[in-house]
Amino acid sequence: MSRTRRSPAPVAALALAGALLAAALPAGADAGGPGDLVASYIDRWVAFYPSRAYARGHAPSAARFEQVTPETVAQWLAFNRATAASARERLAGTGLAAERRTDLAVLAGAAEDELANWAEDRPLRAQPGWYAERVSQALTHLLVRDEPAGAARSEAALARLAGVEALCRQGVDALETGRTLRTEAALRTLAGARTFYGEGLPGIVADWPRAAEVVAAATRAADAIAALEAHLRDAVLPAADPSPALGPAVYAAKLSRRTGGVYTPVTLRDTARDEIRRTRALMVDEAARWQTSLSPAPPEPLAGEALLAAALAAMEDDRTRDQAALLEEFVTLTAQAEAFVEAEDIATVPKPTTLVVDLSPAHFSGAAIGGVYPSGPFDPGADTLFYVPSIPDSAPAGAREGFYRSFNTHFNTMIISHEMFPGHYLQYKVAVSAAPAVRTLFASGSYTEGWGSFSEELMLDAGWAGDAPLTRLAHLRKRLENATRAYVSVQVHTAGWGRDEVLAFARDEGLLAPQFAINLWQRVVNSPLQITDYMTGYLVFKRLYAAQHDAGAAPRAWVDTVLRAGPLPLALLESELARAHAAPPGH
Question: Cα dihedral angle (454, 323, 374, 139), rounded to 10 degrees?
Fold first, then answer.
């Protein structure tokens, strides 16, 4: 069973000296085989990204924080260039075992992504959001995990708060430019974090060892955040680039890397358009199934778009209306989904379930969306954090209505498959125990979100929630939203679409729920490639599952194989599945 824990949330943290980078293997060094190359890269990654490492269960990183200076970045990029070259050289050779070849391909892709992202995005001088996310996330795992405890927890908090303060000072010195919308989003995130440090954290740490020191450090961090906010408002925003678009060339390069060359902007746009048409037709069919289920039957049956609008309205009307009820609904659905997966033999569920379900904190940058923060390969038994989307009960009535109409009971019943069972919780719970660490540390977004999206359909087809028409309709609406995301991503970043075009398309073609329509513009600006993963990954999983079904494979055996392989790029996953299918029984 999952458990509910009252937790605070995000902020950011302290410094790890560049000496840790220098102490690792010399660039290009690989004393042994491919495994040594992978292991040395993970060691250096832990040193460079201690907050990410701690989130993935690396306990020694609890009291460390990124010291990302021009010097440490230069060292990191040199190491990535050497690693990518060495990995590609080995992949061009012969004699590698299949699993080693897969891991080296993942490693090469991770190193090449680091090189491209630092070169293209220039986070130190041109990405206010890069700073804001680290400031807003620093204490997330420290405040909810059981370890470190006691005085060690206080020491880690002090170190991370010092890191927040130092990072904010660095941002004031280094940030020169940005994009207008992303800078405005960063300001909102920073304001929430500043309020949390100044007003929320003192109450949380009141009974900790060295509480007075922690509160004083939080006050200094809040002051440093305020200075960074002032710098963004006074120096960065006036000179910011008002265009939200990456531009055709940059977008095409990022898309090619993310999809392994499968998609160009044109093919992604056309695939998304086809998926929108196909899904809209399925939604009308599902609305008709809903209408025939009504008792008594309506005196004047509806048809077409009028029927679909009525079905969507009925779906949105079935909802909770406050935070406590929403949290209770998600906790209950999580337990029910776990039991259903086991009863229907959909997947093997590892025990014990290690899961914390709680409301997303108000100051958290993703509060209106929520999210899943999985355990990692350094501590596979650690809790996964499932932050349920939230809106304050004190928010204006119109905002609360729009939020709860979006997170209605049918949507929540459907989305629990995506987020928990057999989606993200189960996916990572299996992978961090069964797959090589390199695969979960550098997970494929198309696998991760594609699996979550396909899980919705897998569960409904198995009879989850009785495959009720409005619950199936919620899935189809989400599938339509995923295609809409991909379509508008291309249009914004290569064809000059602005906010008005995006919101009109989201409303008229994408049929997005109110909350998701509001969020779409920010996501297409701030996460333009990530939002394409849902559709591209879903389409691959749908094809792969159909192939195994036609071959007569048992669903659970296929699901277990997919999850145990880890979140691989989908071309590599397909090869893994082919080898598993060809292997003799017992191998």
Answer: 150
